[in-house]
Amino acid sequence: MSTLFTTATLADGRVRDVLVEGETIARVADAGTLDPADAAVDEVVDCDGKHLLPGAIDAHVHFREPGFTHKEDWHTGSRSAAAGGVTTVVDQPNTDPPTVTGEAVDGKVALAAESLVDFGVNGGVTGDWDPDSLFEHPIFALGEVFLADSTGDMGIEADLFADAVARAAAEDTVVTVHAEDAALFDRAALERADDGTGRDADADAWSAYRTAEAEAAAVERALAVGADSDAAIHIAHTSTPEGVDAASDAGATCEVTPHHLLLSREDLDNLGTFGRMNPPLRSEQRREAVLERVADGAVDIVATDHAPHTRAEKDASVRDAPSGVPGVETMLPLLLQEVREGRLTLERVRDLVAANPADVFGVDGKGRVAEGADADLVLVDLDATREIRGDDLHSKCGWTPFEGRQGVFPELTLVRGSIAYDARGDGERFGDAVGRNVRA
After folding, report:
1. 144: in domain
2. Which of 132, 196, 213, 219 could be disulfide-bonded to 179 (CB atoms 3.0-4.6 Å)?
3. Active-site residue (options: 305, 351, 374, 422)
């Protein structure tokens, strides 16, 4: 199968013809220089006035399979990814069973045969993990390693963390860290929020409880342990400017989520416990400071921490509601809206969601529109915005914390040359489950 994209505007503003042959990008040439007849293509896509971007790599998703398929599974999660322009996802280990042994890795990879997009599987760390078997299997990275409990209760002690980081360094494997120090949580904040009815008078209590200081301290500790072993540390879902600065100053990499980038504690009156996540939402001042660092290059990656739960699960007290929000389908649309509104450049978005994740984690052939690269491509019209509605999204959970916001959604997503999502014309259609393990 071959496809010719004509007069496509790339993220850097160049207008090019892009020829896809099979699974790869065969040619990138000046617009108008590739003749469909000469190339003998099966399909010609006129991209005049539209942008052709590399498929996004979401380095942090929880597709919930095995163990929690009432929330999400590989089929529904990957459909949501494809509809949002994400062509590679990296699944985290806090499933049931957790991905802490080679056998568990094999089991999850087998389930991922249902994925429409390419994928990686992270190996995790618990008290009974099996590093020997784990590192014999094609894990994407080590992590998300939890320094405090979150969904799945996988928080570990300092000695085990140091041992795991040293082992990952010996295996030349990146360590992705969930950095929060539980010793610095403000437990009194939850007590103050309890109104005596089992519900909460203050949905902001979770942000007051899991303090910004707890994140900053844990980032510093993770970086120090990494330095002792000369390990590559990647700080997941950094929610504070202090955390970003600490990672940047140490030469480590970090990611920011769309919810920490675009939402703050001021949104919790509307979101309630649907806005509970770990780390929690921060002050508007901190949110703005994080956005500044995303724009100026201090942040390496935007990843979603896509962590769906059902509406019934989230509709509980702040003590009982599970942490996490969906986001794999809305990441790129929201960032493209930031481009439209002048807060980010298109090149910066390309780097944050495609080129940089490929570089940080060493994913060959991904993240760029270049000859010889995988034909992971997303076609978007920056003039075509639509309101984000949970009912229109494809995650099994059926809701979004970004309800009512504007986004720029793809009209076409290719995974290694195959159509994963197509919204051209009337309706939409999805492709087959062609996803591959990028570490296999």
Report:
1. yes
2. 219
3. 305
